[in-house]
Amino acid sequence: MNNILKLAPNTVLTYLEYSHNNSETLLPYQQHALTPEDFHWVLARWPDKSVLLRTLTYEHYLQLNQAINQVPTGKRKHYRQALNAIFMYLYDIAQWQLPKRTEKLFVDRDLVWFTRLSEQAALAYDLWQGYQEAQDNVLKNQAPPCAAQAALTIALEVAPLSLNHLTAILNNPACLERTGQQTQLKVFHYQPPSTTYQETEATFTRYHLTLHSYCFLDKYYQTKPPSLTRRQLLNQLNEHISTAPYHLGACSAPQWHTLFQSLWHHRDNVPPTLLKDISQPERHVDFDVTPPSPKQQKKLLAALYQQDWLTDKKRNAIAVSSKPRWPQRQLIKQRFDKGNTSSCVIPDLKPDNVLEHYLFLYCRELILYGGVQRESLSKATITKYCNIEVCFNDEPLSYEVAIDQEQLQQWAKRVYEKQESDTHKGLVHYFFRFLTTQALTDHLDIDAFESPSLAPTVDPFRIPLTALHEIVDALLTHSEGTLLQRLYCAVSAIIAYFAMLRRGEALRLRIKDIIPLSDKSTAFRITVMKTIEGDTKNHKARTLDVVLPESMAILIHIAIQLKKGCHSHVPLIGFDKETMSSRQLNYLLPVTRAIKVNCGQKARYHHLRKSGIHLSKQQMLQLAYLHPTHDLGAYADLKPMLSPEIVRKKFNYWLEGRDDREINDNLLFDQFTRQVGHQHYATTRWSYLHGTQWLFPYLRPQQASSAQQTFSHAQLRFLFGLSSDSNDLSRQLALLSEHYSNLSISDKQKHPLQLSEHALRAYLWPTKTNHNSESVAEKANENPKYYYQQWGQSATKQHASFIDQLFLNMRMKNYFNFNVLSQVWAGAGKHSPRSLSKTQRTALSGLGTITLLSGKREVTAPNDRDNKGSLIASDQPPRSSLQIQVASNARNAGYFEAVFRQPEWQWLACSFALTVNRKTKVARLLNLVNTSYAKGKEKVTVIKQPEGASHLSITLTPKFPVPELVLQQALQTLTS
C-alpha cells in the first residue's frame, strides 16, 4: 500500500474552488496564500498508518499539529492553512474519518446551507411562479428553447443541480436517454484532477425525466446549441430572469444552486438528507447493464456446478512439477502478428496456481473489448498490462486460497506491497480489478488498493428481483449437483438478497439465528452475529425482520426442517461438520456463476446484498410516504414486495399494531442503517443505493407517470410534436382516449384533459406485444409451490446418485436423520457423487446377487450381567451389512474394483472370507484375494470345506452405525 499520502496541491485547490462555486459556505483559508511547497511540507509529515485506513485519529492530528508548532516563523500560518485545506478535501472527496477536534476547522456547512434555504424561500416562490408563466408562453409560441430555459427546466423539474452540472448537461446531448418508454438524464460526476497512475472510469448517476422535461431537452439539443461555459450560463440565466415574467435580480452561481434547493425543499417538502441526495450527483453512482448473449448464457449455465478445482493425481502432479507457461504472450503474438487468436486455447484452471488461466482471460478481454477509457488498445499497451508474471514471483494463487475471502485478500496485499514502483502497482491493480469480475475471485476487495487521496471506488449494480427468480430456478433445476446442494445454493441466494447478508454472514447463519414468525409464515427474524467461524464486518450483531415471496419462503422452511433435532449452533447451509471452504466452493460459487449467467460478468455475489438493501430502502419509503401504488419504472420488478401488506408485515416490529401514520418517520434512516449493519447512512447511500431516479416518484408524486395530470392543448401539441396551430390534435387525442372521443366539440375546447404520462408514453412510443412464455417470476408468484415442485421434479430428470436416493427415501419413509445422512455423505465422495455408469452396471450384473444381512443386537459377555443374571443389551444399533458371493478370479476382481472402490461407496468397509475346497491349493487363491481384492489392512479369512466349489464372500459393512434403511437403499441402488 502507499506509505505516503500522494496528493497534488492542485487537486486540493481545484476541488475547493469547485466547492466554492456550488455554495456560499466560507472556506477556512485563503487560496492565494498557499503555495505547493506548503502542501508538500505537510504531506511529508503525514502519519503513515492513517493512509491505509482512510482514518486520521486524534493522535495523528496531534502529531501534525506538533510538527507545525515547531516552526518558529510566519510559515506556521501557511502550513496550518494547507493542513486545513487537505482536511476538507479528504473529508469531502476521499471520505476520510477525521477526529472531532477538526470540526472547528470547518464552518458548520449544514447549518449555513439550511439557513440559506430558508432565506431564499420567498425568492424561490417568485422564481417558480415566473417559470410556470414563462413555460406557458413557450408552449403556446413553440419558440426554440434557449440555454437558460433548458437549465431552469432541469433545475426546477428534474433535480436542483448546480451550474457546474447544468453546464455539463447542456453541452452533452448524450446525457438524454430513452429506453423503451423510460426517460432518464445521465449526469456525470465531478472528477478531481488525478496525478496518480490509476485509470478510472467516469462515474455518473441518473435522474428520472418527466415527459415534458424529456421533450423540452430533446428540442433544445435539436437546435445544436454552441458549447457553454459556466460563466456564460450564469450570465444568460441572470439576463433571462431580469425580464418578464420574472423581473428578478441577478444571482451568483452559488446563489442559484441554493435557490434551486430551496424551491424543492419548500415546494415538495423534500427532507434535507434526500435533498442533498438529488442536488449532489456525486452522492450516488449508477451503472449500465450489459447482459450476456444467449450463446454466453448457455456456456455459463452448463458450468454451473462444474468442479473445476478437482483434478486427478496425475494431472495434479504434472501441474505441481511444471512451471507456468504464461500463454497470454502467445495470444498477443497471434493477435498482432497473424491477426487471429483461434489457435490459442484457454489454459486449464490448475488447482495449484490459477493465475495462468486468469492472465490469459484478462489479456483476451483487453484484446476484444479494450480498456476503461479506450475500446481498442495497441500491442504495446496490452503487452505492458498483461506480461506481468514477474509481479507474482513466489506468490502463486491456489484455488483454495482464491475461494476464501480472507486468504485471497491477504495474498493480494502481499503481492501489492512487494511491487517497488508505482507503475507495477498500477498494473497489478488493473489485474485485481479484472479478478473481481470472475466467479472464483469476485469477493476480492480492491478498495484497499485505491489511492487514499482519491474518492473510494464503488461497484454499482442491482440484481432485479425477476433475475433472482431466474437464478433460483437455474440453481434448483440444473442437472448437476445433488438435491441438497441445489437447495442450499438457492437458500444462500435468497437469504443473502432479502436479509442483506455478506458472503460470510450467509454461510455462518445458524439454525438458531433464523426464526420463522409462524409455522408457514413468509416472515422471518434473522440475527447476524459473531460465530466461531467468523465475525461481522463491523464486529456488531444486528437483528432484522424479512419477508420473502411465499414460493421462496417454502425453501427456507424446508432447510430449517431438515435440521430439526440438530444442535442449534449448526449452520443452516451445509452438511454436518462440513468445512467453511467446502461450503464456499459448493454453495456460493454456483450462485455466483448463476448470477453471471443472468446479469453479466460484472455482477457478483455481493450484489445480492446490495439489491436487498435497495429493496429495503424502497419498502421504508413506501411506509413513510404512503404511496403503495406509485409507478416504479425501471424498478417494476419490485412491485410484488411493495404491497401494503408486505410492507406492514416487514415493519410489524416497529408499527406494533399502530397505523402507518403514527410512527416517527424521523427515525427512518436510523432504522435503515441499523438493519443494514452500517454506522452511517452515508456509507449505505454511497456503496449500495445506486442512481436517484427511483426517488422521484416519492418526492413529486403528482408528476409520477401513473398519476392523472391536467394537460393543456398547448402542452399536448408540444409533446406530440405538432405546431402551435395544428388541427390534428383532436384526432390523435381521440385515438389516445375513448373518453375524449365521446365529448362534444365545445367540451373538448373548454375543459383541460386528464391523462397520465403512462398513457402518453405508450401512445408516443408503442412497444411490441410480447408473446413470450410466462416468466419464472410470474410462475412463482402464481404458484407458491413452484420452486418446491421444480426442486422435487429435478430428481427424476436423471439417474439420481445414491446420496439423492437416500435423501428421498428417508423423507418418503418419514425417517429423516440429518446426522446419518451427513456421515454417509462424508464417506461417499462428498460433493462428487454420481449415478451408476454403464460400466458399473455391467460389472454389477457380472458380480451376481447382493444380499442384505440384517444385524442382530449384540449382547454383552457373561461378566456383563445384571444382578439377576440377565444379559444387558448393548446401546449400539444393529450392524447390518451387504454381502456378495463370487468366484475368486481376476474378472470378478475387476468388476468389484469398478463399483466398490469408487468414492461414493467408501463409507463401506470391506472384509473377505475365502472358502476353499480341501483339495484346492489355498496359496494361489489367497494371493489373488490379497493382491486383486483386498486393500491395505482389510481383513481376509480362509475357511476350508470338505466338498463344494471354492468361492469368495465379500462383506460390506458401514464404517459407522447406520439404520438398516441406509443399507436397504444402497441395495436398491445397486440392484435397480
Assign the CATH class of the domain at 115-283.
Answer: Mainly Alpha
Proportion of helical residues: 40-55%
The CATH architecture of the domain at 115-283 can be named as Orthogonal Bundle
Whole-number average pLDDT? 84
Topology:
Elements: H1 9-22, H2 36-43, H3 48-53, H4 58-69, H5 75-92, H6 109-119, H7 121-141, H8 147-158, H9 163-170, E1 176-179, E2 182-188, E3 204-208, H10 211-222, H11 230-241, H12 253-268, H13 272-279, H14 294-302, H15 313-321, H16 328-338, H17 355-369, H18 379-386, H19 399-403, H20 405-418, H21 422-435, H22 465-477, H23 483-498, H24 503-508, E4 514-516, E5 523-528, E6 542-547, H25 550-562, H26 580-599, H27 606-625, H28 644-650, H29 652-655, H30 668-676, H31 681-688, H32 696-699, E7 708-711, H33 713-720, H34 729-736, H35 738-741, H36 745-750, E8 753-756, H37 757-764, H38 776-782, H39 786-794, H40 802-812, H41 818-827, H42 838-847, E9 850-853, E10 881-886, H43 890-900, E11 908-917, H44 922-933, E12 940-945, E13 951-958, H45 964-975
Parallel strand pairs: 11-12
Antiparallel strand pairs: 1-2, 2-3, 4-5, 5-6, 7-8, 9-10, 10-13, 11-13
Helix pairs in contact: 1-5, 2-5, 6-12, 7-12, 8-9, 8-10, 8-11, 14-26, 16-17, 16-18, 20-21, 22-23, 22-26, 22-39, 23-25, 23-26, 23-27, 40-45, 42-43, 43-44
What does this protein structure show overall?
With about 1000 residues, this protein is of the alpha+beta class. Among the domains are: about 10-105, no CATH class; about 115-285, Orthogonal Bundle (hpI Integrase, Chain A), CATH 1.10.443; about 325-450, no CATH class; about 705-765, no CATH class; about 800-860 and about 875-975, no CATH class. About 50% of the residues lie in helices and about 5% in strands. The protein contains 45 helices and 13 strands. Strands 9-10-13-11-12 form a 5-stranded mixed sheet, covered by helices on one side. Strands 1-2-3 form a 3-stranded antiparallel sheet, covered by helices on one side. Helix 44 links the parallel strand 11 and strand 12 (about 940-945). Helix 1 packs across helix 5 (about 75-90) and helix 14 (about 295-300) packs antiparallel against helix 26 (about 580-600). The longest helix has 21 residues, at about 120-140. The two termini are about 60 Å apart.
